[in-house]
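name: query_chain
kind: protein
chains: 1
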Amino acid sequence: MNSTQARDSFKRGLAAVAATCALFTGPAVAQEPIKIGSFLSVTGGAAFLGDPEQKTLELYVEKVNAAGGVLGRKLQLVAYDSAGDAEKARSFAKRLIEQDKVDVIVGGSTTGETMAVIPLVEAAQIPFISLAGAVVIVEPVKKWVFKTPHTDRMACEKIFIDMQSRKFSKVALISGNGGFDKSMRAQCLGVAKKYGIDVIADETYGDKDTDMTAQLTKIKNTAGVQSVLNAGFGQGPAIVTKNYRQIGITVPLYQSHGVASKDFIKLAGGAAEGVRLPAAALLVADDLPASDPQRAVVVSYKHEYESRFKSEVSTFAGHAYDGLMLAVDAMKKAGGTDKAKVRDAIEGIHGYMGTAGVVNMSPTDHMGLDLTAFRMLEVKGGNWTLVK
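structure:
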């Protein structure tokens, strides 16, 4: 064999070795899944949040994978049921980070769960998109923490604007003692004067209370009350609504976006008639005009969810959809799952149309929604309707 033949043989040998290595290493890397971690209140008192959120994540992980995945890789959902318990949430988040080694976390049904986990994700430097409502989650801004729902402060402001339009200025507050309730109460008290609102009664109830008649009677007997705002979430607001009608309070009742699902109407029954609250357009998707730029997104999501699960969609389910899609969009823009690059990509998202509204993130805003993302709804005929 001459030198030229030897050189050619050596090159062919190298090519064969490279091909063999590619056979064993190339596809393995290409097929390594992108892990989406989640902890949700699938059972327990906040199951009305976590159950539809988990269903949504399962549905859209499946759909993304059926369409080819993200950057040629399949998504893998690693989810745990924290049952609304902050300590469980913290334990599961630790497992997601240290054992499951997820690439991003989308979850946290409640404010309490979310706040318990924030120190862990900040220390681990992993992107975390919360599905909970309180403004404290993103104010002050935490480098690795984002959220998809509208904040409690925004809900207060939207409600007060509606009260202004109805010429209500003397308002009574009633709220629970949970994390969201306390936060929203504080936010409402903080912005009331800005909107010319005078809070002349302020009552609270426990998370296990089954009757709020005593607190509502005090409100009824407060001279000058023109409307009442229940800053609460869970089953408490349905009890408040029933008791409200039972003792004959006739001034308008407002609820928070924390009860923006058909479950509230079912629990409150006929007492819910006339109740107003701010919520995402998702609850009235089919009623939006064709010209509404959000209509296509919310109608598509609503129909896909309801067709799959045979149950009515809620705004909470939509928060999970937005969280997952924001994470997917960020990974595409980052060109992979490098956590720092994904974090930066989430922070740079601008013009994303989701179920909650148009999202414009920035270094100073890790939610990206403004008041136009909220719609004012009223219960009429046992269903949500747009307040014109």
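note: DSSP finds twelve helices and 14 strands in the chain.
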